[in-house]
Each structure stands twice: as structure tokens, then as C-alpha cells.
Amino acid sequence: MEAGEPRIQNLLLTLKTAAANLALDEALLEAAEVGACPGPLSSSSPEPSSFQGVLRLWEPKHYFVVLGRSSQPRQEVSLAVCARDGIPLLRRHSGGATIVAGPGCLMYAVVLKHGFHGDGADPARQFQSLPDIQATHQFVLGRMAQALSPVAPRIVRTGISDLAIPGAHSPGSETRLRKFSGNSLRCKRTHLLYHGTLLYNFDLARISRWLKMPPRHPEYRSARSHEQFLTNLPVSRDSMIQALLRGWRANQPLEDWPREQTARLAREKYHPME
Predict the structure, then answer these.
(1) Which of 27, 97, 167, 250 is a Cys-bridge partner for 55, taking CB atoms 3.0 to 4.6 Å apart?
(2) Domains of the chain: residue spans and CATH
(3) Mean pLDDT of 29-58
């Protein structure tokens, strides 16, 4: 790693409950805002201030539904079916549409300091923070696609904040893009949280069971159902994790995380909706 290059730490941690996992993403952002997100504890390690971000990877053990900050449950969720199946509903603090999370869906969250510099193919490129939201999507999703390209070529950034791959050809029709990653964003004064889903071995039929067709959708969807529109990235969980760690150069583990803040947020803000 060259001198002066921004550093990203990794946190490979799945907590026990859906509420705690959603709360941890926000707690990492809040800790970064106040300079309380600790760096490596080794005395030989760089000072925490030399780290400009955290990449967290986690995967739920149970299914749950997560609404975006402004999502309307009655418009987006099959509430009666979720209640009958015992599927909890929670609301995250970032935007975007409603998702189903669970086994076979790797979740990621990256907390970045505003002004984080890109590297790789274009080392001079700089991530521009607020108010250019489009630049934020372009930077993070571009890095995600580049990181995954060694194990999953032909990834395309499309829509507002989607990653997709070409689907199989059908006789007499063109190949259509199929989405495997949906993402959302939350910006604060000095840092941002960008998080999303990476489908790789998910039971896609469950999405159609628990979610309605979204009230708004990107043009490339072409009114396809969830099962026709979504797909699993054809990679293993371990290969995807290793590709993301390499792509973000997130070689240094975050050795502590904001436990008290996570517990408070899970208790006060992220409990399942009634």
C-alpha cells in the first residue's frame, strides 16, 4: 500500500437479530461522524485517523423484510402473507425500495469519509461528497462492480442504484439485464453510509410471496415480476467476500465496533413494526 493511500477496514460480523444488524450499520456511521470508530488496537498499527472507511459484510440467518425510509408498507408489502408466515418488518434509515433479506443474500455496508479518493484504473479520480448523489452512486457501485469482476464478469451499473448481469437469451428476444444488487444511501456531515444486497443463493420465490410489485421501478425492468427481474450472482459466498476485500483493499480488520450504540438503536429504533 502506497503512502498516503486511504485505508479501509473490514468488519465481517453478523449479529443475532435483524434489528441489531440494521442498527449496526447506522451505529458505524454515527461513530465515524464523532471520530469514535476505533482503528486497529495494535501499537504498531496506524492511528485510527488514517483510516477513512469501514467495509462491513454480513448475512442474515433468518428472513425479514426491510422498508426504505419513505416506503409505504401497504403499497409494497403483502402484509397478510408476511403476518401469516411470521416474517418481521423493519424500516431502515436510508432511502430506496423495500427488500427481503435472508440466507443466500450477502449484505454489505461501506462507511466512507467525504473526500475519499478512488484508486485502481483511475487513481486521480476523487469521490465527490454532497450534494452530488449521482457521483456517490457512481463511485461506490463502480468500485463494487470492479471488485467483483474477477469472479463475476459483465456486471452492469444500471437504474438509479442497481447492479445487474445479462440474463439468458430467449428465442427471438434480446438478452435482458437481471438485477442482483439493490442499494441505498445515507449522508451525514462528514461521512456517508452506502449499503445494499448481493443475491448469490437466494430463494427468489420468497420475494414474490412477501413483496408486491413496487410502485416505482426503473425502465429496464419492463414490468417484469420479481422472479423474472431478479437473479443470483453465480458465485460462492467466500469468493465474493474475498473479491470485495481485495477490491476495497480492506485488509485490516476493525477490532472493535460501537456495541452500546448498536444496542440502543436496535432497542429504540429498529424493533419490528407492529
Answers:
(1) 250
(2) 7-261 (3.30.930.10)
(3) 67
